[in-house]
């Protein structure tokens, strides 16, 4: 019996040693992979930082680099200076690839947010007067999204009511003769202080602190994950950097499943203003 007990103890010791070797090897591999670098837009920083902190507990090192515009993140990624970026949805990415010829692709999905029409001057859409100044994004994709929302609000009609790439030239009815002002997407949040009616995004409004994102005169009724923000990489990322790609996939999974990250998104965006784009 004593011999059997000794054998069992020895076996347990071997198993524990193997487990420790595996953990050390995994940690060493994570260290060898090095720090992942993800380019982001500032409004997404807080929840992503929570994901970074959660990933660090698993030996995954991630650095976030903020960009203030919507062009540089793809240029930087295409040059290979960062591992991924997180700021754009699929329609925006598709248009960017068409215009630049960059070889980029989504590796995973993040949050999808509702968008709204906002005003500090008027409490209802009915109050918005004729000849009002209405701010919309100047890029073709987000401008189309803004026009669809204006159509949903019955303020305009479009040539094709289902075209998510509609432009100002596609407006067929503008009963109140709105004067449209085109600005860069991130600047719509600042325009709330001056314009009569503004199309904008909850996360940018919360960052700018110009108006409560919950105070939209109308929110879009779209729950299509087409507008989910994407983790985008180069086309050859997985083949040229398989270990880094594996680590990035683990980070994306942490972002999608961590209760701490979900709470951070609820706090940062607004519980009723976002939904998971990966489902």
From TrEMBL:
Its main location: membrane. It is found in: Membrane. One of its GO terms (cellular component) is membrane. It comes from the Bacteria. It holds the Pfam family Lipoprotein_9. Gene3D superfamilies: Periplasmic binding protein-like II. Keywords: Lipoprotein, Membrane, Palmitate, Signal. It is a lipid-anchor. SUPFAM superfamilies: Periplasmic binding protein-like II. Belongs to the NlpA lipoprotein family. PANTHER family: D-METHIONINE-BINDING LIPOPROTEIN METQ, D-METHIONINE-BINDING LIPOPROTEIN METQ-RELATED. This is Methionine transporter. It comes from Acinetobacter lanii.
């Amino acid at each position: 019996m004593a011999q059997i007990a000794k054998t069992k103890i020895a076996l347990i010791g071997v198993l524990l040693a193997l487990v420790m070797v595996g953990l050390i090897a995994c940690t060493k591999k994570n260290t060898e992979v090095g720090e992942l670098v993800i380019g982001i837009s500032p409004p997404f920083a807080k929840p992503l930082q929570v994901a970074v902190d959660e990933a660090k507990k698993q030996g995954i090192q991630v650095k976030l680099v903020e960009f203030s515009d919507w062009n540089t993140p793809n240029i930087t990624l295409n040059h290979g200076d960062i591992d991924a970026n997180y700021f754009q949805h699929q329609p925006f990415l598709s248009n960017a690839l068409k215009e630049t010829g960059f070889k980029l692709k989504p590796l995973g999905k993040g949050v999808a947010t509702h968008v709204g029409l906002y005003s500090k001057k008027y409490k209802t859409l009915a109050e918005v007067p004729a000849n009002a100044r209405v701010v919309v994004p100047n890029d073709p994709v987000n401008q189309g999204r803004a026009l669809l929302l204006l159509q949903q609000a019955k303020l305009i009609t479009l040539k094709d009511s289902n075209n998510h790439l509609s432009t100002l030239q596609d407006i067929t009815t503008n009963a109140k003769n709105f004067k449209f002002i085109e600005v860069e997407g991130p600047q719509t949040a600042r325009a709330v202080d001056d314009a009569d009616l503004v199309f904008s995004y909850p996360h940018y409004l919360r960052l700018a602190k110009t108006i409560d994102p919950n105070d939209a005169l109308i929110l879009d009724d779209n729950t299509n994950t087409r507008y989910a923000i994407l983790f985008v990489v180069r086309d050859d990322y997985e083949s040229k950097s398989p270990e880094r790609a594996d680590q990035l996939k683990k980070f994306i999974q942490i972002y999608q499943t961590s209760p701490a990250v979900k709470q951070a998104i609820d706090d940062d965006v607004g519980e009723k203003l976002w939904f998971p784009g990966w489902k």
